[in-house]
């Protein structure tokens, strides 16, 4: 999953021969056997498992590489919570959404729509999830309090990583909004100011944190040093805000 996510993030041509060969092997040979839960053991990779944060990532890469992930999309639609987002812990009683899970699902639904899978019910669900982030100004609780640390992983959402895997941060939230061609309003102003404040004297942004995950290639970037990928993403969201705001 991490390898396919990274290839998607780096922009590998999904129609090219290398992508088709690799994804075909995944489709034909990879299952969830050995992962949890056991009920998913026989599922092919693009059928996913049970957690919406995982299934969101699988659906995003599946849609990008042209695989049939409508079954996963339908499952995610059925797991949307009353506040508009998603939470992997809903199965054990969670009733409030998680930023981490919600961003994974939003990216999946948008990718599915962008690759020919547009459907009113999908767009409606995505817009409700999008509103969940916007209503919280991308990093605040429903009470208005800044979320200083992610409850599940302890990460600081104001510190930017690449790749992010399942982790949310403010820049990732803004990147989703840019990709969805949302017209920025005052609810993103604080997040945009945060991104702009992190630009160094040379006009670059640093890699501020990193998360465990499968890296098939090293990107040559070190925490605390300027990052091409963080800089690219930051420049894109600032340009989006300037052009659409």
Topology:
Elements: H1 2-10, H2 17-29, H3 52-64, H4 70-78, H5 99-117, H6 120-135, H7 170-179, H8 189-197, H9 228-244
Helix pairs in contact: 3-4, 3-5, 5-6, 5-7, 7-9
End-to-end separation in angstroms reads 35 Å
Largest sheet: none
Q: Radius of gyration, Cα only, in angstroms?
A: 18 Å
Report the helical percentage: 40-55%
What order do the SSEs take from the amino end to the carboxyl end, as H and E? HHHHHHHHH
Mean pLDDT: 95
Count of individual helical segments: 9
Strand content: under 5%
Outline of the structure:
The chain has 245 residues and is mainly alpha-helical. It is 47% helix and 0% strand. The longest helix is centred in the middle third of the chain and has 19 residues, at 99-117.
Write a structural description.
The protein is mainly α and 245 residues long. 47% of the residues lie in helices and 0% in strands.
List keywords for this structure.
mainly alpha; about 45% helix; about 240 residues
């Amino acid at each position: 999953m991490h390898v396919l996510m990274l290839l998607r993030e780096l922009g590998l041509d999904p129609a090219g021969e290398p992508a088709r060969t690799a994804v075909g092997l995944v489709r034909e040979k990879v299952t969830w056997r050995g992962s949890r839960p056991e009920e998913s053991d026989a599922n092919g990779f693009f059928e996913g498992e049970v957690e919406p944060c995982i299934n969101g990532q699988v659906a995003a890469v599946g849609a990008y590489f042209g695989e049939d992930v409508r079954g996963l999309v339908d499952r995610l639609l059925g797991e949307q919570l009353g506040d508009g987002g998603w939470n992997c812990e809903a199965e054990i009683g969670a009733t409030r959404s998680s930023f981490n899970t919600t961003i994974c699902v939003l990216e999946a639904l948008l990718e599915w729509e962008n690759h020919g899978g547009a459907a009113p019910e999908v767009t409606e669900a995505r817009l409700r999830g999008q509103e969940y982030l916007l209503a919280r100004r991308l990093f605040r609780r429903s009470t208005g309090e800044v979320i200083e640390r992610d409850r599940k992983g302890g990460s600081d959402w104001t510190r930017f990583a690449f790749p992010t895997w399942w982790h949310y941060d403010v820049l990732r939230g803004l990147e989703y909004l840019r990709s969805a061609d949302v017209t920025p309003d005052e609810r993103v102003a604080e997040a945009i100011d945060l991104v702009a404040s992190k630009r160094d004297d040379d006009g670059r942004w640093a890699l501020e944190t990193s998360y465990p995950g499968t890296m098939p290639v090293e990107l040559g970037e070190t925490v605390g040093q300027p990052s091409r990928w963080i800089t690219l993403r930051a420049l894109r969201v600032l340009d989006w805000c300037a052009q659409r705001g």
